[in-house]
Design goal:
Blueprint lengths: L1 H18 L9 E2 L2 E2 L1 H15 L2 H12 L14 H20 L9 H32 L10 H21 L3 H8 L8 H24 L11 E4 L3 H13 L7 E5 L5 H10 L2 E4 L7 H6 L3 E3 L6 H11 L3 E3 L7 H9 L7 E3 L3 H5 L1 H7 L3 H4 L12 H11 L2 E11 L22 H15 L5 E10 H11 L7 E8 L2 E11 L5 E8 L2 E6 L4 E6 L2 E7 L10 H13 L9 H20 L4 E4 L9 E2 L14
Parallel strand pairs: 3-4, 3-6, 4-5, 6-7, 7-8, 9-12, 10-17
Antiparallel strand pairs: 1-2, 9-13, 10-11, 10-18, 11-12, 13-14, 14-15, 15-16
Organism: Cryptosporangium aurantiacum
Protein name: Oxidoreductase family, NAD-binding Rossmann fold
Keywords: Membrane, Transmembrane, Transmembrane helix
Length: 620
């Protein structure tokens, strides 16, 4: 007999638990002690729900319907069923309400039964409101609803039903109830006062439902930009590019340190809405306060610390190349790519001047949007695959970034890019051809065979007189191989105008790709037949940096596409290659050749393990 009772009790307990959710101890036990008020309140609601017909309907339906996969701990009871239940209840009550004159002649027993049924409905509605709209979050920590408006739309329906029921049970005109509900009961009318108090409770519930259910209005991301750094890149490239894209001076704030060049500060102050001067440790405060997309255009040695602060704050940002000249910082960026999840790695060549070549290698749609569509002979994306196949394997790559005196540093405005006086400081320029190589050859590093290092003597003498320091080399040429591909790159400043050239040529077994970085286009030739041109759309993007800024603004407003479209990982590889190449130059003690006009072009020094021991050490 005892076992039968125990078995019956277990079955009944399971049924009760499926009808109503028993509160977990964590909802009323705090600090190891039972809190009496939550204990009583939550268990009272638990017992009250056992008396709700809706809960028994749910229990029955759950036992009948197939339990399809769900994220809930029990079979789903779709919100549509609850809505149909309350709609049916509302229809029945409304029918009685409009027919109450005809029901006056009904037997007394039926009237009493109707009053009891109405009382059960009122009780059920209030239990539903109390549990689902107020207390459920305390008792079911991981519940879900079917759609955001599930409770928002059901609540007015059950309140209307409740008002009709109250009018029937209290035998009170509905208009009188509405007067009581808005807080105007007659003096001494206890029922009216009760209705007014209940209305205040429902008003609180309504506010809670709106706050918890309404998805809200999504605000636009900030449209203004903060630029950290007030040098020539900011003044001559970033700000004009943003303005060419339709941004106004009021959209731009520039923050810099007191040591910034006064000429550039004066120029930028006229171009940007605000020019803020801050101590080095406070330059990020504006970005952190306004949470605006930020462009880091400061000296390389502070890039890493600034991008980490922005990444931690979740603010979209762009960082000028090179991201970092310190290998250990780049290792951190590799091992923690989330630091650049909201960051965009700027690259003036591969993402603007050489964008047609980047598109030829990686034809992403966002790149295509910046390319010309009306230039004669333009190659469409659908043709690229077949042209690549016809070109065959790559045989050689030649890259020249040779800039005359007019494009080379003057004075002290960008002196930090030329100090200290070692080859590594030349990374500001040398990173561009290496990054182009990284696109073309992939992740395999070039095995360099020989190189030439030079320094423009007039500039070197000028800086020695100004600051008594030696500048970095201004000429670097290297030759090597990447697998079966011959690679030659030349990077130079202060070259004669007749030598100035910014181009690349990729020779294939059946043709070539010629890249003109100044014209921002590539020409494709297969079997001596020109197959067309891919070019940046100069009508839309005529200003320098405009393509680069367009890509960044797209990212800052919309986030990444399915793939990153900046050069983050590739830039890390290119910078590592530069460090390795500089290490090799130092080990082989390659001399720095001074030149007055024409840089050394034929003084190749071997980078092999058997490099000559008689050459002079690399000047510092």
């Amino acid at each position: 007999m005892g076992q039968l009772l125990q078995s019956a009790w277990l079955r009944a307990s399971r049924v009760i638990q499926q009808v109503s959710t028993k509160p977990t101890s964590s909802s009323y036990v705090w600090g190891g002690r039972i809190s009496p008020l939550p204990f009583v309140a939550f268990h009272a609601v638990y017992l009250a729900r056992l008396l709700s017909p809706l809960q028994w309907v749910k229990f029955t339906v759950r036992r009948i319907i197939a339990a399809r996969p769900t994220t809930n701990m029990r079979p789903d009871f779709p919100s549509a069923y609850t809505e149909w239940y309350f709609l049916a209840e509302f229809a029945a009550v409304l029918l009685v309400f409009v027919s109450q004159d005809q029901l006056d002649t009904a037997p007394t027993s039926i009237k009493y039964a109707g009053i009891v049924l109405a009382g059960v409905m009122i009780f059920e509605i209030n239990v539903w409101i109390l549990y689902y709209l107020l207390l459920r979050g305390f008792l079911e920590l991981h519940y879900t609803i079917f759609h955001p408006a599930e409770y928002l739309l059901t609540f007015p329906l059950v309140l209307t039903t409740q008002a009709l029921l109250a009018s029937l049970v209290l035998d009170r005109d509905l208009s009188k109830l509405l007067v009581d509900a808005v807080g105007n009961p007659q003096v001494g009318d206890s029922v009216g006062v009760g209705v007014a108090i209940a209305t205040l409770f429902y008003l609180g519930v309504a506010i809670t439902v709106v706050l918890s259910s309404h998805p809200g209005i999504r605000t636009r991301a900030p449209q203004n930009f903060v630029i950290v750094g007030a040098g020539d890149v900011t003044a001559k490239r970033i700000i004009p590019a943003l303005k060419s894209l339709g941004y106004d001076r009021d959209d731009i704030v520039v923050v810099t340190v007191p040591e910034a060049d006064e000429d550039w500060r004066y120029h930028i102050d006229r171009e940007a809405a605000r020019l803020e001067i801050a101590a080095p440790d406070r330059v990020m405060d504006t970005s952190l306060r306004e949470r605006s997309p930020t462009i880091i255009a400061s000296p390389t040695y502070v890039h890493f610390s600034q991008l980490v602060r922005l990444a931690n704050a979740g603010i979209p940002f762009a960082v000028e190349k090179p991201i970092s000249s310190v290998r250990s910082e780049r290792d951190i960026l590799r091992s923690a790519p989330e630091l650049m999840e909201r960051g965009f790695a700027l690259s003036y060549y591969t993402l603007e001047k050489a964008l047609p070549l980047t598109y030829f290698i990686d034809p992403l749609p966002i790149y295509a949007r910046h390319l010309s569509e009306d230039r004669p002979g333009l190659i469409s994306g659908a043709e690229l695959g077949s042209i690549k196949a016809e070109l065959g394997r790559i045989e050689s790559i030649t890259i020249d970034l040779l800039e005359g005196t007019g494009r080379s540093p003057h004075g002290t405005s960008r002196l930090w890019t030329e100090l200290p006086g070692v080859l590594r400081s030349f990374v500001e320029t040398a990173v561009h051809p290496l990054l182009i190589l990284r696109h073309v050859t992939g992740s395999t590093a070039v095995a360099w065979d020989e190189c030439i290092v030079g320094r423009y003597d007039p500039r070197a003498r000028q800086i020695r007189e100004l600051v008594e320091k030696e500048i970095a080399p201004t000429w670097f040429a290297a030759r090597g191989r990447c697998g079966a591909i011959d690679v030659t790159m030349r990077v130079g400043k202060y070259v004669p105008d007749s030598m100035a050239s910014r181009m690349a040529r990729i020779e294939y077994e059946n043709g070539r790709v010629d890249c003109d970085f100044d014209a921002r286009n590539i020409s494709l030739t297969v079997a001596d037949v020109n197959r067309g041109v891919i070019a940046v759309d100069s009508t839309k993007y005529s200003a320098n940096y405009s393509v680069l800024m367009s890509l960044f603004t797209s990212f800052s407003l919309n986030g990444w596409d399915a793939l990153r479209f900046d050069d983050f990982q590739r830039q890390l590889d290119a910078l590592d290659w530069w460090d390795d190449l500089c290490d090799r130059v130092e080990v082989c003690r390659v001399p720095v050749t001074s030149y007055e006009a024409v840089p050394p072009v034929d003084s190749w020094v071997s980078l092999s393990d058997e490099a000559p021991a008689a050459v002079a050490p690399l000047e510092r």
